[in-house]
């Protein structure tokens, strides 16, 4: 998946993190991803990703190699 993000970032002329944030922001149910950084430049890149809209084709390219993983360290409540 990383290579798909990097390739799309090169094509768009943006940072891979901006593509990743645009993808996550477009996901159903996601309203505010948690972003942590110690560099002001990264904050500016994150804000710039808000105006980046991925086409349905671009989303499909990113999602094709994606394989969800089970949540680790979390137990389901007992019924």
Oligomeric grouping of the chains: single chain
Helices, by number, come to: 4
Number of structurally distinct domains: 1
The sequence of SSEs as H and E is HHHH
Using brief descriptors, characterize the structure shown:
79 residues, mainly alpha, globular
Brief overview:
This protein has 79 residues and is mostly helical. It contains 4 helices and no strands.
Describe the structure.
The chain has 4 helices and no strands. The radius of gyration is 15 Å and the shape is globular. It has one domain (2-63). 10% of the residues are buried. The longest helix has 11 residues, at 2-12. The model has no long low-confidence stretch (mean pLDDT 87). By secondary structure, the chain is an all-alpha fold. Helix 1 packs across helix 2. The N and C termini lie far apart (36 Å).
Secondary structure topology:
Blueprint: H1 2-12, H2 16-25, H3 40-48, H4 56-63
Helix pairs in contact: 1-2
